[in-house]
Amino acid sequence: MNDDSNPLMMLIWILPIILFVFYGQRIQLYVTSGEIKKAIKKLDAFREESRNELIDYIKKNTSFEIDSIKKIDRFLDYFTIMPVDMDPNGIVDKVQHTVRSREDYTREHIKILCPQLSDFELTKVQTLLELASSLQMIHKIVNHMFLTAKKQNNYPLILPLQMILPFVMEQAEAMREAIPAFESGQPVGDGIGPMVVGKMMLNCEKQILSFQTALAKTDFENRQLFLLKAEGPGSTVGRPADALEKIVSENTINAIIMVDAALKMEGEESASVAQGFGAAIGGIGTERFQIEAVATTKNIPVFSIVVKQSVKEAITLMTKEIADKADDTRLQVYEMIKENTKEGQSIVVIGVGNTVGVPQ
Amino acid sequence: MIFSKKKIIIAYTIEKCPECNMQRKRKFAKDDVLFSESSKCPSCDVICMIEKIFGESFEQ
Predict the structure, then answer these.
(1) Hey, is the C-beta of A196 within 8 angstroms of any chain B C-beta?
(2) Which residue in A224, A238, A241, A325 could disulfide with A212, CB within 3.0 to 4.6 Å?
(3) In chain A, what are the domain boundaries?
(4) First and final CA of chain A: distance in angstroms?
(5) Which three-class secondary structure state does DSSP give residue A134?
(6) Taking a C-beta distance cutoff of 8 angstroms, is the pair B24, B48 a contact?
């Protein structure tokens, strides 16, 4: 009897086939579950770590009451319901109102919770709270998706989670590593825009033009420059669009130049500088919308200079490579002004990004 | 991974003398912020300005 007709050998071949036909998806579910469980455990540790860091920071800087922990936990669970977009008319104003209301509410309640905190410390606590809250939300969502798939014993349901998990983990790890930089008030990669414009503002008279946004006026080769950046060294991005609206309503502006950090594509060199057109500003999109609206109404060209970096580099302590590009970027701003405007004209230069550790 | 080395990031501050442009690298100290006044330049006796703050990663 050769192997082909041996019933035992046939059984050895057929059994796994039957097993995989009927239980293949379930086996895959178990294998994938193991990987996802590890990631969820990591996310849970990040969540806990960020919460403890926040509580420790507040404890170190203020007189702390036991009741404060409950309030912080309540803040961490806060959610934002975005406006209905079935009718998109006026959606940007609604989104802006919702987001700003949340920011104002958080700021006011941190002030109540820690009245001894200076404005500088307050912005740091607000950012740490946002980081802890985001990590909590990421953990909740990933855990929910996993448990739903597990409960239904549904393998296809776990596939999208498996696919997005590496990207989610990259973001979560970046957020966790961002905590020490914000705690110590060190500049982050995203602060390259404020760093460039902040240096241009040195020795100029400054004024606060809109909420947490500083303006300085100066001259450069017979052109008037309006330099804008978030008010440093606190952890804030300011409201440059509001400030731009004010400047444009009172002056004739011939060009807008925005300096910002931009996400690099895979394979692109970190800290490379690129120039382009259009408003270089991230976030939820409301600031960009406002800047584009002002520029379009007044027919002002918008130029941008960006410093490329990864997600992690953007929110963690600025790397040497990025910091070394500040002078080169500033020279490119001056070059761009000379190339695109004439003498006697006015230009707004906006340093976009989080200005933690970067005054003006 | 068992054999992967742990990466640590150390923050540094670069001070620059406005007179002789000499740059000095030191470890980041609490309350350091960019463009603020720092220690005196050893050669010109002028107050230096913080030019850069950045992190460098090392394997442990």
Answers:
(1) no
(2) A238
(3) 10-184, 189-351
(4) 89
(5) helix
(6) yes
Short-list A181, A192, A247, A183, CA closest to A214 = A247
d(CA A87, CA A136): 31
What is the tens place of the pLDDT at every residue in A208-226?
999 999 999 999 999 999 9
CB nearest A359 (choices: B11, B30, B33): B33
Mention every residue, 6+ apart, whose C-beta is less than 8 A from residue A270. A264, A308, A309, A310, A313, A319, A321, A322
Model-level ipTM above the cut of 0.95: no
Q: How many helices (H) and strands (E) does chain A have?
A: 11, 7
pLDDT tens per residue across span B4-48: 677 889 999 999 999 999 999 999 998 899 999 988 888 888 999
User: Topology of domain A189-351, per CATH?
Assistant: Rossmann fold (3.40.50)
Q: How confident is the model at residue A4 (pLDDT cuts 50, 70, 90)?
A: low
Separation CA A275–CA B31 (nearest Å): 34
Six-digit token string for A181: 């930089």
- CA-nearest of A211, A205, A236 to A226 is A205
**Cα A198 from Cα B23, distance rounded (Å):** 20
DSSP character string of A305-324? EEEEE-HHHHHSBPBHHHHH
Residue B43 C-alpha, separation from nearest chain A C-alpha, in angstroms: 24
d(CA A59, CA A63): 7
Q: Which residues of B touch A317 (CB under 8 A)?
A: 9, 11, 54-55
* Total length of chain B: 60
Domain boundaries, chain B: 7-59
Residues of A in contact with B9 (CB under 8 A): 177, 316-317
